[in-house]
């Protein structure tokens, strides 16, 4: 059975949609300076000041020393002197690799760092450049252009993936075609699906089975595996056969470690954990069993400490690479409601964690060398260098050494988050810092709160409505909303007149309330629902993925999974993995 910690790789055949640019933002969105990369922080302020002086809305942080701005409904880039680079467009995307995508009259093109048009806006969709090539889409067909804007292949494909390792996959009718960097077709294949090339090999699919090919199109393995996982630094890939037999292959397709194990995980710290006859042990990259299967459960070796946590007889302990226990210390494995073991790693923070052994609590380090008993009835995990503890009556906080640094005097308390903790002393709720200093307190009129501190705002409810206070406890955004959420990436959802929009920390409505449902921003995007379905907006309020899906996930590593309604397949399969531009992606592309 596949485990949650081992991401599965399954094909998701994807098709295309037409990107809808629907600007719903009417006021500027100021980027939270706390979120800026350190390299950008020093020069962001002057950019923002210049944009404000000129009356521009702006969207930071600056990229390539250029700030994306909007004026009178049009978008452009401004340099550090306040000059507009090139022209205004209906929409622009941030620079990536000295080029930026621009949109005019619902068509996409590219400009260079001087604002000159490398590719006039003429495509329905464009993607970023990979290996110096970008896929483009026009009139229902895909093709590729180079950085000079020249089409290196005709726009003739029903689907096209990004270039990777100098090659790309495209689909023409029922065949998958392998293309080189010149846009030439290397070979065609009768396959059900493919993955992008990585380290010179690609996974291909046929009848729910997987195999490998090289860049010449030559088959490296037969198409027989249930799953082929990515190759790691040791050039080995974990594979699974139909009957749940696990092993490893090298890049020549040779089963260097035959699939004879009941379960297995990828290599970590030079060793891989494998399961045989119901017990876990460890093998090296040659397949030699260095630590015999003997444990009820095992976790990966830590490459830094050279230690691993294993479990036997409902107890955890550390072992070294020879399989010897690091110490005699053991701690307890938790059970579920049915009395079955629940295996999980300790919640280490800055190398320290709190665990339970019998009826006692201990602080341990992540190398198994340090432990210290704690004289408390309860202790939370560490957060921001503090752990909440209780004697069964009052609450306080300890540091990583187990020292009580905030006295045990609170009737209730919560863990630190963003270096602020919410505590209750008597009948008063307060906010404290890591030294225990009071930062502010709740007004008696506050009925409830999420107790989450972000962007110097705390969501509270008063008089049946939601609003926000700052860290001192002052009401800075009136409690007037039927619904509100915590701030996330500088914006918060609020409900006004039955619709959802987004405000900034000043309380300004920066994305108007036009959505029937909305989610918080995550990695620069938020899922929103209109009458036509779910889509994704960016922080400018523009729909970057059209609102036509039954459900939407969150962006992670530039990819989001969207689910179509069963009666609205259109250009999509049931589940589609899409880029920030709404383009489909191959698995692991």
List the helices and strands and how they pair.
Layout: H1 38-53, E1 57-63, E2 66-71, E3 74-78, E4 84-89, E5 91-92, E6 99-104, E7 107-112, E8 117-123, E9 125-126, E10 133-138, E11 141-146, E12 151-157, E13 159-160, E14 167-172, E15 175-180, E16 185-189, E17 193-194, E18 201-206, E19 209-214, E20 227-228, E21 236-240, E22 246-250, E23 257-261, E24 263-264, E25 272-276, E26 279-283, E27 289-295, E28 297-298, E29 308-312, E30 315-319, E31 331-332, E32 334-335, E33 341-342, E34 352-357, E35 360-365, E36 371-374, E37 378-379, E38 387-390, E39 395-398, E40 404-410, E41 412-413, E42 421-425, E43 428-432, E44 438-441, E45 448-454, E46 457-462, E47 465-469, E48 475-481, E49 483-484, E50 492-496, E51 499-503, E52 509-515, E53 517-518, E54 525-530, E55 533-538, E56 543-549, E57 551-552, E58 559-563, E59 575-579
Antiparallel strand pairs: 1-2, 2-3, 3-4, 5-6, 6-7, 7-8, 9-10, 10-11, 11-12, 13-14, 14-15, 15-16, 17-18, 18-19, 20-21, 21-22, 22-23, 24-25, 25-26, 26-27, 28-29, 29-30, 30-31, 32-33, 34-35, 35-36, 37-38, 38-39, 39-40, 41-42, 42-43, 43-44, 45-46, 46-47, 47-48, 49-50, 50-51, 51-52, 53-54, 54-55, ...
CATH class division of the domain at 225-345 = Mainly Beta
SS field, number of helical segments: 1
Strand content: over 45%
Find the CATH topology of the domain at 225-345.
Lipocalin
On the 0 to 100 scale, the average pLDDT is 89
């Amino acid at each position: 059975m596949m485990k949650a910690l081992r991401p599965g790789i399954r094909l998701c055949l994807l098709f295309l949609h037409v990107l809808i640019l629907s600007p719903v933002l009417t006021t500027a969105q100021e980027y939270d300076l706390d979120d800026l990369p350190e390299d950008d922080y020093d020069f962001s302020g002057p950019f923002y000041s210049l944009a404000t002086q000129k009356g521009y809305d702006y969207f930071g942080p600056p990229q390539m020393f250029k700030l994306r701005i909007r004026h009178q409904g049009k978008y452009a880039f401004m340099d550090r002197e306040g000059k507009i680079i090139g022209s205004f467009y209906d929409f622009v995307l941030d620079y990536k690799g000295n080029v930026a995508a621009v949109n005019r009259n619902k068509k996409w093109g590219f400009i260079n760092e001087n604002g000159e048009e490398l590719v006039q806006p003429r495509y329905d969709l464009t993607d970023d450049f990979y290996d110096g090539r970008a896929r483009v889409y026009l009139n229902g067909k895909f093709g590729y252009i180079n950085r000079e804007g020249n089409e290196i292949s005709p726009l003739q494909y029903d689907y096209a993936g990004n270039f990777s390792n100098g090659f790309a996959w495209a689909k023409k009718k029922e065949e998958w075609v392998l293309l080189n960097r010149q846009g030439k077709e290397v070979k065609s294949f009768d396959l059900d699906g493919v993955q992008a090339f990585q380290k010179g090999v690609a996974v291909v699919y046929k009848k729910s089975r997987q195999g490998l090919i090289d860049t010449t199109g030559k088959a490296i393995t037969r198409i027989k595996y249930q799953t082929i996982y990515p190759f790691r630094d040791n050039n080995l890939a974990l594979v699974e056969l139909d009957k749940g037999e696990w092993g490893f292959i090298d890049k020549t397709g040779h089963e260097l470690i035959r699939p004879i194990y009941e379960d297995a995980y990828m290599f970590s710290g030079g060793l891989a954990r494998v399961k045989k006859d119901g017990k876990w042990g460890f093998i090296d990259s040659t397949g030699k069993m260095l630590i015999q299967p003997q444990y009820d459960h095992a976790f990966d070796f830590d490459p830094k400490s050279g230690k691993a946590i294993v479990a036997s007889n409902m107890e955890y302990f550390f072992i070294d690479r020879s399989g010897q226990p690091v110490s005699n210390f053991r701690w307890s494995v938790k059970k579920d409601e049915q009395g079955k073991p629940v295996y999980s790693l300790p919640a280490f923070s800055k190398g320290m964690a709190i665990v339970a052994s019998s009826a006692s609590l201990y602080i341990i380090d992540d190398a198994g060398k340090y432990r210290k008993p704690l004289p408390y009835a309860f202790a939370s995990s560490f957060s921001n260098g503090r752990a909440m503890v209780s004697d069964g009556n009052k609450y306080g906080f300890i540091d990583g050494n187990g020292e009580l640094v905030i006295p045990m005097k609170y009737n209730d308390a919560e863990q630190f988050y963003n270096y602020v903790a919410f505590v209750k002393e008597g009948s008063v709720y307060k906010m404290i810092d890591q030294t225990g200093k009071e930062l502010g307190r709740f007004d008696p009129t506050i009925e409830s709160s999420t107790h989450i501190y972000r962007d110097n705002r705390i969501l509270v409810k008063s008089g049946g409505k939601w609003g926000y206070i700052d860290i001192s406890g002052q009401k800075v955004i009136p409690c007037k909303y039927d619904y509100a959420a915590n701030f996330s990436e500088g914006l918060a959802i609020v409900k006004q007149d039955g619709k959802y929009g987004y405000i900034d920390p000043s309380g300004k409505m920066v994305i108007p309330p036009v959505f029937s449902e909305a989610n918080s921003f995550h990695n620069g995007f938020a899922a929103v629902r209109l009458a036509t379905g779910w889509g994704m907006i960016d922080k400018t309020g523009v729909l970057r993925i059209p609102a036509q899906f039954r459900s939407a996930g969150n962006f992670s590593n530039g990819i989001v999974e969207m689910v179509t309604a069963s009666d609205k397949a259109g250009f999509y399969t049931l589940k589609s993995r899409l880029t920030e531009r709404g383009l489909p992606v191959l698995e692991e592309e």
